[in-house]
Design brief:
Chain lengths: 338, 445
């Protein structure tokens, strides 16, 4: 009995002791691999394909960061996290960065001691219902049963929305996206609510995609973005500026295909700084001079990543909308690379 | 050791030397225990210190203040009133009550199933004992989680959607014509005189309602319903009166040898007061129905009225009862086999039938063997309710260890609180069962 307690305590203490961490950049370089917290499987955003290779919009950003830090976009280990485990995984040091459609909120930023370094997708919470339900607005859902994923901002938004509109609902709280879809498809709930991008991704995988509609109401702001631990500012800056580099690349028309050509011929000082042709931009953050060039080479610029994974040519078919560059009426705006 | 060298050779045997702590068997056991205890305490101290330091490094502290913050989420099954405006602490209590509810009914059903299966497994009827063996072996040897998910999927996927109960415009039109042969009826209909509707969301059942309730009050924002209290009081009173009647009958029987007829008096005492009270309070059933418009066409998404038993609850209860029942069956069988066969033979010799032999001779003695392992099965069942998370049953694990933990980010506090709660529940159950065990165990005088 005593021995068991002793061994158990020993095991527990090693787990806790392992949680102490130094600078994340040095850790990643020493390990030769970036550990990226990812979704357990959300089509278009982050999931393994048929060959076990991770693909998706969030995954592409992980690869860009790996390319910037280690020079190789394939040196990433993806750790699938659920809505419940994701922030614990990050703050305990199990992952280096969390890029997994996580909403930037005040309390997560302050109370959970996390830093949201960028917004890679501006989203909002929506509802999906079956067409034959005859519902055209979320305000007609009085008395409906609604499936929600637990551990997310969506369950709080949902309660607020129904309360504000003075209508009632029955919640069905489920663990993950696939279970929510199963329950929704089997008719155990009338409506399924999550981020509108997630709804579009879910609908793309359904066999009878055209018999489901996404209601027009967007009931919340959901800025989704990469998250790092509070307090490691250098690492936060690396992730933030890798993302900004992808945005600037789109703004300047630099693509995966023409980057070498641009690098050879450009006279634009900002592009030259970003690609490491002049100045000491990479080394300022402890990276190589060509770090951001490598990041862009990994999956192309922001627009290319968007179109390849979730854009209008894919089954998910999301329009750029708020996620267009500021020059095209969207919100994606990168500070100058100077 | 130092003392030993300071002593002259051939010192008196009574003298105590430090080396005796190791070499003298009288002291060695104590020495080892003390050393292990100190090492263990040091380890615990280091663990706690390490935790605090690591929390400080992450700029976090241990703070239970979140329990008094607005929860903001909804819970589908609530035994006491709760809205998303309530605080996290109340959400925790809702979860705790849901845990206790499923554990309470689970223990009762598991015991009934277990005793029946255990007795039947010893049956001389080959088919009956064979079936019980199959039941016990399949349920004991497959993980509980799989049973819970299986039962949940079966209950939720095989039942019709609430939509299937709706009356559409086409149906109303078909009823309007004289010709009844073209009438269309909803795909699904309710059972038991329309009081119960089985859907894939849960079971809608008629709710008992009172039209002239006695009112109620709130104690620490937990509602106390006077009607329920009055009914309980009347039932307890009736049972006590009935006991007095039976005791009297026994005294008369011992006195005169003739037992007075009591059955109709018992029935009257047990049921008349309760029925009278319920009639006086205007007892009726509220039947779940779809709201409909003036033409008779059903509207809305779900049944209104009555109450809904979620499939997550049903599935968890069924799976827990059957799983734990299989273990209890084995305990009961072992208990019965532990009673010498001579007891049964003696009972038969006295002319008792097999059923009465089991009830009057074997089971009461077997209880002494059965109860101690039964306690641990009850504890297992209670702790296993936390697997309800797999079917979205919002028990203590779902509220405190699930949504509250997530929304507040207080992992350590939530886990500690949850462990403490399960510990207290388990200790309460085992102390209650120990009281019962002391009551039935062999009295040695």
């Amino acid at each position: 009995m005593k021995k068991t307690v002793f061994l158990g305590a020993l095991a527990a203490s090693t787990v806790i002791a392992g949680a102490a961490f130094a600078g994340t950049l040095d850790d990643v370089k020493a390990r030769g691999e970036l550990i990226c917290g990812s979704n357990t499987g959300l089509t278009g955003f982050g999931m393994p394909d048929a060959n076990g290779e991770w693909i998706g919009f969030d995954v592409a950003l992980c690869r860009a960061v790996a390319a910037a830090v280690l020079g190789d976009p394939s040196k990433v280990k993806f750790v699938p996290t659920t809505g419940e485990t994701r922030f614990t995984a990050l703050s305990s040091g199990e992952v280096d960065v969390l890029i997994r459609n996580s909403t930037w909120t005040y309390s997560r930023d302050s109370d959970l001691k996390l830093d949201f370094v960028a917004v890679n997708y501006y989203d909002g919470q929506g509802f999906m219902v079956k067409k034959d339900l005859g519902v055209s607005s979320a305000k007609e859902l009085d008395g409906a049963t609604v499936c929600i994923q637990t551990g997310t901002t969506t369950e709080l938004n949902l309660a607020d929305f129904f309360k504000f509109n003075n209508i009632s609902y029955t919640p069905v709280t489920v663990q993950d996206d696939s279970e929510a879809q199963r329950q929704y498809l089997s008719g155990a709930c009338d409506a399924y609510t999550t981020d509108a991008s997630g709804l579009a991704a879910a609908r793309a995988t359904m066999a009878d995609a055209e018999s489901h509609i996404i209601l027009p109401e967007i009931i919340s702001k959901e800025p989704l973005g990469p998250v790092v631990r509070h307090g490691d500012n250098q690492w936060g800056d690396i992730v933030r500026w890798t993302f900004n580099a992808l945005l600037i690349a789109e703004e300047k028309g630099i693509t995966k295909a023409n980057i070498e050509e641009v690098a050879a011929s450009t006279t634009d000082p900002e592009v030259r700084r970003m690609l490491g042709l002049e100045g000491e931009m990479g080394p300022m953050l402890g990276l190589d001079a060509g770090a951001f060039k490598a990041a862009i080479l990994a999956g192309g610029n922001y627009g290319e990543i968007f179109e390849a994974n979730i854009g209008s040519s894919t089954p998910i078919g999301l329009a750029r909308g708020l996620n267009a560059l500021w020059t095209q009426g969207g919100l994606q705006y990168a500070p100058p690379f100077r | 050791m130092t003392l030993a060298t300071g002593m002259p050779a051939g010192a008196p045997k009574e003298g105590f030397r430090l080396s005796m702590l190791i070499y003298d068997t009288r002291f060695r056991a104590i020495t080892i225990q003390v050393v292990v205890l100190i090492a263990f305490l040091l380890l615990v101290g280091w663990l706690v210190d390490n935790t605090i330091q690591n929390l400080a490094a992450k700029d976090k502290n241990i703070d239970f203040g979140f329990l008094w913050v607005r929860a903001g989420y909804d819970i589908e099954q609530q035994l006491i009133p709760y809205t998303n405006d309530s605080v996290h602490g109340r959400a925790v209590i809702i979860g705790l009550l849901n845990t206790l509810l499923v554990a309470f009914f689970g223990c009762i059903f598991a015991t009934i199933i277990g005793v029946l299966a255990g007795v039947l497994r010893l049956s001389k009827n080959w088919l009956v004992s064979g079936l019980m063996t199959i039941y016990v072996e399949t349920f004991r040897n497959v993980p509980l989680l799989l049973w819970i998910i299986l039962v949940f999927v079966v209950t939720s996927e095989t039942q019709p959607q609430p939509n299937a109960f709706k009356i559409t415009q086409a149906m109303v039109d078909s009823y309007a014509t004289e010709d009844t042969s073209d009438d269309i009826y909803p795909e699904a209909s309710k059972m038991l005189f329309g009081t119960v509707a089985l859907t894939n969301r849960g079971t809608y059942m008629a709710a008992p309602l009172l039209s002239r309730p006695l009112g109620g009050t709130e104690v620490a924002s937990i509602p106390a319903n006077f009607s329920v209290l009055a009914t309980l009081a009347v039932i307890i009173g009736s049972v006590l009166t009935n006991r007095a009647l039976l005791r009297r009958a026994r005294l008369v029987q011992e006195d005169t040898g003739l037992r007075p007829t009591t059955w109709w008096k018992s029935l009257l005492i047990l049921f008349a007061p309760v029925v009278l009270l319920l009639v006086a309070m205007g007892f009726h059933l509220e039947i779940p129905v779809f709201p409909s418009n003036e033409a008779g066409v059903s509207t809305g998404f779900n049944f209104q009225g009555g109450f809904l038993v979620q499939h997550s609850f049903t599935a968890l209860l069924i799976a827990l009862s059957l799983y734990t029942g299989a273990f209890i069956a084995e305990i009961v069988r072992a208990g019965i086999l532990a009673i010498s066969h001579g007891q049964t033979e003696a009972a038969f010799a006295l002319g008792l039938r097999p059923g009465r032999t089991m009830n009057l001779i074997v089971l009461p003695q077997a209880l002494r063997v059965i109860i101690p392992p039964l306690i641990s099965q009850f504890l297992n069942l209670t702790k296993n309710t936390s697997l309800g998370i797999a079917v979205s049953y919002l028990d203590l694990r779902g509220t405190l260890g699930g949504i509250t933990l997530n929304q507040t980010g207080r992992e350590l506090e939530c886990m500690l609180l949850m462990m403490l709660t399960y510990l207290i529940i388990s200790l309460l159950i085992s102390s209650l069962m120990n009281v019962y065990n002391n009551a039935v165990k062999l009295k040695e005088r």
